[in-house]
């Protein structure tokens, strides 16, 4: 039986990536690129870039003008609660903290806001192991 991470990924189409990197050598760039290549709509969230992975970049989650299924976080754990608050504010379905990122406070905020919560898991690994594509 699939776990929560697989279930939310199977149901998702749109992934907003907070902290998508400009550097192709970093996981914060290669992981979202892999998700995009698998057919997911990736929306970059970055404080200063204008375009990443061929997509318009937004400064904050709350600037995104379309529904978001998953908010995927590539930022330090200490920033996760603020991202969780924005994810709740935009009505995202899931807050996903990438591998190595853990935040009990972000979990509390997300779950209190009705979001699914995944932490310390790589979204691209879950996608590959579950053979999930769009």
TrEMBL record:
Record-linked InterPro entries: CoA-bd (IPR003781), NAD(P)-bd_dom_sf (IPR036291)
Keywords attached to this entry: Ligase
Domain of life: Bacteria
UniProt key word Repressor: no
Pfam (any one): CoA_binding_2
A single MF term (Gene Ontology): ligase activity
Entry protein name: Succinyl-CoA ligase subunit alpha
């Amino acid at each position: 039986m699939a776990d929560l991470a697989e279930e939310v990924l199977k149901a998702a189409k749109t992934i907003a990536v907070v902290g998508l990197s400009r550097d192709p050598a970093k996981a914060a760039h290669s992981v979202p690129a892999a998700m995009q290549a698998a057919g997911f709509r990736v929306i970059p969230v970055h404080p200063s870039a204008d375009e990443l992975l061929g997509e318009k970049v937004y400064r904050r989650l709350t600037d995104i003008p379309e529904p978001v299924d998953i908010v995927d976080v590539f930022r330090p754990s200490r920033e996760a609660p603020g991202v969780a608050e924005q994810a709740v504010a935009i009505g995202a379905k899931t807050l996903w903290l990438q591998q190595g990122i853990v935040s009990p406070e972000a979990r509390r905020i997300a779950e209190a806001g009705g979001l699914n919560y995944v932490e310390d898991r790589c979204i691209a690994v879950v996608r590959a192991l579950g053979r999930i594509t769009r």
